[in-house]
Structures are given as C-alpha cells and as structure tokens.
C-alpha cells in the first residue's frame, strides 16, 4: 500500500514499539511501513496479541513509537505535545468495542462531551449535537441513557461522539465485535455512509475477515508485530500470498466443503487432492476446468463453490478434487492462468 504522501491520511514509516518487561523489553511492533490512503476504509486484521491495538493507539498519540514515526494528515504524532497533540486528537476520532459511553450522561450528553472539552460555546454545541444525532439516526433516543440502549444504538452514540469535532480520520477498535451479525451490518453500513458522505478516512482493526470483505477498500495483515501482507482488499481476497492471510480467508469464503468430504480430510496422499481455487470475476473457472480436462486429461470433481462481492466486484471460490498424483500438475496449470490455488487436504 504505497502511494503519494499527499494522498495519504496516515503514514507509518519504520515504526516500532517495545514495552518494558521483566528483565528486558517486549517488541509489540517492528518495521511497520504502511500508507493509509486518504478517503479509504483500511482494515488491519490479526490474531490476539498481534499488535493491532498498539498500532491504532499510535495514530492518536495514546502510544508513542520507540522507532520510526507515524504522521496523520502530515503531522508527526510521536513528536506532538500540548496544543499540537490536542489538535491531532480533535482530527482523529475513535470508536471502541465496548462503546466507552458515560453511563451518567444521556445520548446528547455523551455526544456533547468532546465539544465541551474543546471549549465550544454552548449554543454551537446544541446545534452540532442535533446534527450528529440526525446523522447517525438516533433522533427519538436523544434523551435516553446508555443503559436504555441496545448495543447497536450505543455504537451509534459512539460514532456520533467520535465525529463531534469534525475529524478527518476515524479509528475503529473492533467496533462490531460485541454486536450480533445483523447489528454489525447496520453499523458497517453507517460507517460506509460516513466514509462516502464526509470523505472521512477510516482505519479499523478487526479479527474478522468478513468485516474487511464487507467494508474495507484496503487491508493489511499483521502477525507478531509485523505486517505480512497489505494492499487493496479485492487483490488480497483473490490473490492471497501469506499463509496467515490464507488461513484468515479460509473461514470467510462462502464456499464450504460438503460434510462427507470435510469429515474425511487428511494430510497425506492417497486418493484425491482437495483444492480451493480462487478467481477474480464471476465465471473465470468455467473454461479452465474444461481445459484442464482436454489439455492435461485431468478431470476435476466440483465439491462446492460461491461467488461473493467486494464492493461491486465479484470473485469466486471453487472447491474441487483431482487425483492426488495429478494435484501438482493441475495446480501449476491453474496458476499459470492467474488463478490462486490452495491444497485443503486429501481424501480417500
Ligand atoms: N502497555 C503494555 N505493556 C506491556 N506490553 C504490552 C502493552 N500493550 C501491549 N503489550 C503487548 O504488545 C503485544 C501486542 O498487543 P496488542 O494489544 O497491540 O495486540 P492486539 O493485536 O490488539 O491484541 P487483541 O486483539 O487481543 O487486543 C502483546 O504481546 C501485548 O502483551
């Protein structure tokens, strides 16, 4: 994810972060180089402890780098102090997995908080809060307390509060992880709308590939404090390279193996090799499987398949089996036509 600096909302350069630990230091992040394009929704995915939260907290100065730097709309966050740091924080809103609302304040009171801290005059606060409540669709609930709201409604309050100071960047720390799938969709739709309508850059962290598929234009995979793969989401879904990316993807594609195959899957040969073929577009494999048969004499059994979309662009996953001793040839053939293949196992 490289790009011109002027098109970037956030740039991480050689960023490292270590924490003191008994007898030494623990490296939470190492050698992070990443450009978050302005106006993008960029997702960072990684397992627990990979360094996602630490990376996000660098962007609003809650953590400072021990190496390298992070700049937000041209401002070096690690070097900023006092008024400069406060200005960055007004320009970078944040939403949280557990919403972090004040239980003693109403919806209106929670949303007003950052404006009160920024010293905005009372009359202006009221008008701005009304506008924000409208923007996130919370109209009838303005005088309710957090305890009287559902999870999705609480997250809307969190989003409105994060937008109060008119930031150019919104950070999202697992904002949908505590929500049910249906509510997750409505919150993701709201984030997508805010991104489009306000031109806001969103940097989100998640451990769910489905969130990235549904909303992220760009993504990066982080493992043990390092970025192992980054780029446009569509490219990574259709041509994943790193094993960690592939393993995240295996849980999210719509294509599933029939139970009678999945239950018999084993590591070693004999019999048939089960392969996942990933392709861009909706129909890319039809001629390929025919050519596999006519040109190589290998007939593939189709075990499952699904077409999905990232934004308006379709991509597909096909699960096939071929005789185990032909697996390498079949995959080499498909690879030369730009299809991505992955061996899922073998069945007798
Ligand atoms: N304040 C701290 N002091 C010491 N170690 C820390 C601190 N913050 C984070 N770490 C360590 O840094 C590493 C990365 O942690 P981080 O919370 O960024 O990961 P994460 O990917 O967000 O994980 P999770 O999904 O579980 O929140 C972990 O090994 C963690 O123990």
TrEMBL record:
Domain of life, per the record?
Bacteria
Q: What keywords appear on the UniProt entry? A: Amino-acid transport, ATP-binding, Cell membrane, Membrane, Nucleotide-binding, Translocase, Transport
The record ties this protein, via PROSITE patterns, to: ABC_TRANSPORTER_1, ABC_TRANSPORTER_2
Record bears the keyword Transport: yes
As given in the record, the signal peptide range reads none
GO: which molecular function terms?
ATP binding; ATP hydrolysis activity
Q: Which Gene3D superfamilies match?
A: 3.30.70.260, P-loop containing nucleotide triphosphate hydrolases (3.40.50.300)
Please provide an example of a Pfam family that matches this protein in its UniProt record: ABC_tran
Annotated GO biological process: amino acid transport
- InterPro entries xrefs: AAA+_ATPase (IPR003593), ABC_transporter-like_ATP-bd (IPR003439), ABC_transporter-like_CS (IPR017871), ACT-like_dom_sf (IPR045865), MetN_ABC (IPR041701), MetN_ABC_transporter-like (IPR050086), NIL_domain (IPR018449), P-loop_NTPase (IPR027417)
Q: Which residues form the ABC transporter domain?
A: 10-249
Protein known as: ATP-binding cassette domain-containing protein
Identify the taxonomic lineage of the organism of origin.
Answer: Bacteria, Pseudomonadati, Pseudomonadota, Alphaproteobacteria, Rhodobacterales
